[in-house]
Amino acid sequence: MSYKTERVTDPGRLAIPEPSTDSNEDRYRVLLESTPLVPWEADARTWRFNYVGPQAEQLLGFPVERWYEDTFWVDRIHPDDRPETIDTCLRLSEKGGHYDIEYRMIRADGAVVWICDVVGVEMQDGKPALLRGFLVDITKRKEAEAARAESEQLMRLMADSLPALIGYVDTNQRYRFGNKAFEEWFGISPAEIEGRSVRDVVGAERYEAIRANIETALAGDAVSYSMVFQFPDDSPHDIDVRYVPHIAENGTVAGFFVWAQDMTDQKKAAESLRRYRDELSHVSRVATMGELATSIAHELNQPLSAIVTNAQAAMRFLATKGSDPEEVTDALADIAADGKRAGDVIRHMRGLLKKGDVDRAPVNVNDLVRGVAELLHSDAVSRQVAIHFELAEGIPPVDGAATQLEQVVLNLMANALESMSGEEIAQRDLFVATALRDDGFLEIAVTDTGKGLDPELVSEIFDPFVTTKPGGLGMGLSISRSIVETHGGSLKASVDEQGRTCFQIVLPALTAETG
Questions:
Q1: How high is the pLDDT of residue 36?
Q2: CB 375 within 8 A of CB 418
Q3: What is the second-level CATH architecture of the domain 359-515?
Q4: Which stretches of 219-324 are DSSP H helices?
Q5: Among 3.90.1150.10, 2.170.270.10, 3.30.450.20, 3.40.190.10, what is the CATH number of 7-143?
Q6: Measured between alpha carbons, how far is 118 from 137 in angstroms, rounded to an integer?
Q7: Which one of 10, 40, 126, 247 has the largest count of C-beta atoms within 10 Å of its C-beta?
């Protein structure tokens, strides 16, 4: 701990009372001994006290008589401070005049007391002869300074350890604080940053780009913005910056705090996660379509068979003399209709199997549900399941990727159909309902009368690799929930009192205000 706070003071600053023999002597003594300061007088050659005020006993806990011992003052100086304190007093006393010095003394109970010793020197024949002064207890001030220094050091360590640039700029647009990140970002150490202008640190071109944000912060408003920042090694980084005004007690803006974070790695990770999620989504769609391959083949076989039959009929009509042209026209119309139906099935399959980025647009959930149901029609027929629709009319669309939302509904409806397989299922009904909720969200509910979901699995069914299907991967519902959540919604499962399993998709509706 340093005690070095010495300065030679102006000779007129300190008025040490001279010995007096007039009637004012008692008055001076009463005045001196009524202050919290400890007045003293000592021989400049021996440093032995000639006089010490009674306050001395409270200062160090020793009776005043002990203070008159030959080496009392030297012995009570803290051992770590003693050599330099004595050397400083000798050096400054030789100059005469007045000075003050700070050092530590040891109390009778062993406690440490910080002292400011204010000294006046009386010279005789050019040499110090008599010393007079006051001892001032500055322990509380020193403890406060130490606590403040420790707090500042802790704040500095914390700021330097954070993975962000942290600084403080005053109203003159000069940095008053900067953490270690300034060295990485600008090649300037924290010690060098203090006092330098923002323009000088960031460069003229970059300063002009952020100048309006700085002026906004100094006007008292918080600012957030993003930018591409070139590090000293010329590598580009995506940076998020925030300025927070510092409002003084009088209500004026004293400056602003700077927080800047390098988001390059996070944005790369987010992009990688998005691509990974899209890959999983595509794999899930392929797996789902693989499971439906037989039903889809049957779905295509029907219109193709009808096309062949109608084409053969048209040929017979044309080969028969006197045939009715309307019969040929009807056959051709049926061929066109069946061809369109087959094309729609193929188009739907291609859309679901398509890999790559998807565009978001307004999606009519009722049309989406009907389209998925059409794709699953043959599967429902083969499983003897009746599909019931309760679709609210006039509901607004949702903003989303139609292919991904189709995948979610397809996954839920396909799972429901599969749950109603087996001879033990007597009632086979699949209910699909849409509704606009009071909170402005659209709800799609898929309910089945199948085997039912174990209530204990309700909270785990959306976890990866959790499945109720023999040989299932346990990824379909996890991916479905991820898709719904990226659309700002939620996907939940529940079991009602009748044991029916219900999955609820909740999505924000696209209204005039949000669209």
A1: 78
A2: no
A3: 2-Layer Sandwich (3.30)
A4: 264-291, 293-319
A5: 3.30.450.20
A6: 11
A7: 40
Quick: pLDDT tens for 170-181. 999 999 888 888
Residue type at 101 in one-letter notation? I
Two domains, one topology: 7-143 and 359-515: no
Averaged confidence pLDDT in the chain = 79
Asked if residue 325 has pLDDT above 90, the reply is no
Q: Are 443 and 365 in contact (CB under 8 A)?
A: no
Burial of 29 (0-12, 13-18, 19+ CB in 10 A): middle
Which of 42, 40, 70 is closest to 55 using CA atoms? 40
- In terms of phi and psi (left: phi > 0; alpha: psi -120 to 50; beta: otherwise), the region of 268 is alpha
Say yes or no: domain 162-262 is CATH 3.30.450.20: yes
Quickly list DSSP for 343-362: HHHHHHHHHHH--S----EE
Q: Is the pLDDT of residue 11 over 90?
A: no
Comparing CA positions, the residue from 388, 458, 451 lying closest to residue 419 is: 451
pTM as predicted: 0.39
The domain over range 268-357 is classified in CATH as 3.40.50: no
Residue pair 53/69 in contact (Cβ under 8 Å)? The answer is no
* pLDDT of 276: 60
C-alpha to C-alpha distances, 182 to 55, 149, 199, 211, nearest whole angstrom: 52, 22, 14, 19
Contacts of 179 (CB under 8 A, 6+ apart): 156, 159, 160, 162, 165, 166, 167, 190
Q: What percent of the chain has a predicted confidence (pLDDT) above 90?
A: 35
